[in-house]
Amino acid sequence: MTPSSGSQVPLATWLGRISASLKAGRYREAQAMTVAAAALRPATPMELIELARRLLYFNLSGQMRGVGKRLLDRPLSNAAAEADVAAMLSMMGDQDQASRLLDRAMVVLGPHPAHLYNRSQMHLYAGRLAQAEADLRLCLAMEPGMAKAHWALSKLPAGAHGDTDTQAARLTLSRVPPASQDEVFLRFALFNQLDRAGQHAQAWDELVRGCQAKRALLRYAPEDSSRLFEALRKSFPLPTAPPEAGRNGQGPTPIFIVGMHRSGTTLLERMLGNHSQVSEGGELYDLPAQLRLAGGRHFGGPLDLAVVEQAGTLDFAAIGKRYLEQVQWRANGQPFLIDKLPSNFLNTGFIRHALPQARIIHMQRDAMDTCFSNLKELFSNACAYSYDTDELADYYAGYRSTMQHWRESAPGFVLDVRYEDLARDPEGQCRRILEFCGLPWEDGCLDVGGNQRAVNTASSAQVREPLHQRGIGAWRRYEPQLQGLRARLATHGIE
Q1: How confident is the model at residue 332 (pLDDT cuts 50, 70, 90)?
Q2: Does residue 159 sit in helix, strand or coil?
Q3: Which of 152, 223, 345, 371 yields a CA-CA distance of 20 to 30 A from 249?
Q4: What share of the chain has pLDDT > 90, as a percent?
Q5: In angstroms, how far apart are the furthest CA atoms of the chain?
Q6: What is the pLDDT of residue 72?
Q7: Same fold flag, 121-217 and 222-480
C-alpha cells in the first residue's frame, strides 16, 4: 500500500508500519508513511503521542504544526497527551500553538511540576522572564529535587538569584546519584550562580565537575569529528559545478547564520530579524533532515560521514526544494528567512549546491571567548565536544580549517563577520551584512532589545538585552584556569 492511500487505513496501522520500516532500515519509506499518517486523526491518546514523536523524529515541523492546529480546533480530548504534544511543538519552535495547547491542558491537569517546567521554558523563549521565574519557583516548591529546574532558574537574569537558591541547589546535589544527569544539571546551576556572584574559584570547581559528569554520559569520539572535517575537504568542491544562478524550489530566500555555538549568532539573528522583509526561523534542523532523507538514513546532529561520502550522487535540486517546502510556514510571508543553526557551517558545500540563492553569514568570535562560552554552557543534545578542554580546542581547530576551506573553494559565497566588530560598530557591520543579503537599510535593525520574537536557544535570556560589549574578553576572569585550553589551541597555531 502506498502512502497516498493512507486515508483508508487507521492511524494505528500506519504507526505500526512506520516502526517496521524503520527497523528494516527503510528510512525514506518510513518518512513518507509519517507524512501520510499526519493527515489522520488519532483515535487514542497514545496514537496522538506516537504520531507526534514520529513527526519530531523526521523533523516534519509543518505537519506537526497541522496536528497542533487540529487539536486546537476541537475541544480538549486528553489533557495529558496534549500537554506532551505541546512540549514537542515547543521543541520544534511553534511557541504559540504549544503555549495554547499547554495552557488549556493545565486547566484540567493543574500545576504539575513537569508541566510547570515546560511552561516556564515557553515563557523564557517568548521573553516573559518574570513568568518563567514564577513557574520555576512554583515547580521547585512542589518538587524541590527537580534538578533541571534548578539549572533553568540559574540561567535567568541576575535579579532572580541569591544565596537561598545556591543553598537549595547544593542540598539537592547532596541527594542525587553521582555521575547522573541530575548531577550535571546541578553542577552547571551552581557554576552559573557562583559565577554571577563573583566566586570564581568555587564556580570553576563546579564547572569542572559538571563537565566531567556530562562527558562520562556521552559517547563522543573526537576521531569521528576529525574524519568528518577531512572528508569535507576532500569531497568539496564536487566534480559537478554548483548552479550559478536561479533557485531550487519556491519559497523564501534562506539566510544561514553559521559558526561555532556561542559566537554571537543569536545577536546577529535578532538584528536581521528586525528587518521588515526578514523572518527569524531560529536553530533549524530542516537542512540536516533533508540530508538524512537524501542519504536514506538517520543520523544525529547536522551531518555525518556517510552523507559526505555520498555527496557526488545526491539530488541537490530535490534537497533544496524539500527544504523550502518544510520551512515555508516559518517565513510568515516574508521574502527572507533566517536559519540560525550554527553547526550548518559543516553544510556550506551542500547549501551551495542545493540552495544557490541562499546567503551564508559566518559569525566569528575570539577563540578563547568562543571556547570558554561553549565550555560553560550545558547544551541539550548538541556540542558533545564541549565538555573537555582538549576536545573542545581540537574541534575548534577543525572548525577553523573547515571555514578556511570554504573560503578557498567557494570564494564570495560566505560573508565573515566578527562578533567584536558587530558589538563595537553595530551600524557599520549591519549595513555591510544587509548589503550582502540584498536588503535595504532599516534603522530598526539595531534595536535588538526591542525584538520580541521567540528565541529557542541557549541565549534565550541574554538576547532580550540591548547591545553591549560585556562578552568581549569574558574568558579572562578564568584566565589561570584556562591556560590548558589556551596551550592546546596554540598547538594548532591559534592564539
Answers
A1: very high
A2: helix
A3: 345
A4: 86
A5: 67
A6: 94
A7: no
Report phi then psi at 92, rounded to 5. Answer: -85, -5
SS3 state of residue 407: helix
Best CA proximity match to 11, nearest among 32, 34, 28 = 34
Secondary structure element (H or E) that encloses residue 364, with its range:
strand 359-364
Cα–Cα distance measured from residue 266 to residue 264, given in angstroms and rounded to the nearest whole number:
6
Cβ neighbors of 311 (< 8 A, separation 6 or more) are 235, 236, 238, 349, 350
- Among 317, 335, 325, smallest CA distance to 243 is for 317
Domain map of the chain by residue range?
1-110, 121-217, 222-480
Pairing of strands 359-364, 336-339: unpaired
CA dist 386 and 493 (Å) reads 20
Query: What is the pLDDT of the chain when averaged over all its residues?
Result: 93
Evaluate if residue 5 carries a pLDDT over 50. Answer: no
From start to end of 267-313, where are the E strands? 278-280
Statement: residue 245 has pLDDT above 80: no
- Does 222-480 carry CATH code 3.40.50.300? yes
Predicted local distance difference test score (pLDDT) of residue 462: 57
Q: Residues 130-149: what's their mean pLDDT?
A: 97
Nine-digit cell string for 148: 533541571
Q: Is 1.25.40 the CATH number for 1-110?
A: yes
**Sequence-separated (6 or more) residues with CB below 8 Å from residue 62:** 325, 326, 328, 329
Strand 414-418 relative to strand 359-364, pairing: parallel
The span from the CA of 113 to the CA of 116, in Å, is 5
| Top CATH class, 121-217 | mainly alpha
Instruction: Kindly report, residue by residue over 22-43, the tens digit of the pLDDT.
Output: 999 999 999 999 999 999 989 8
Dist. CA 129–CA 172, nearest whole Å = 24
The secondary structure element, H or E, covering residue 103 is: helix 95-109
**Contact criterion met (CB below 8 Å) for 62 and 54:** no
d(CA 477, CA 225): 30
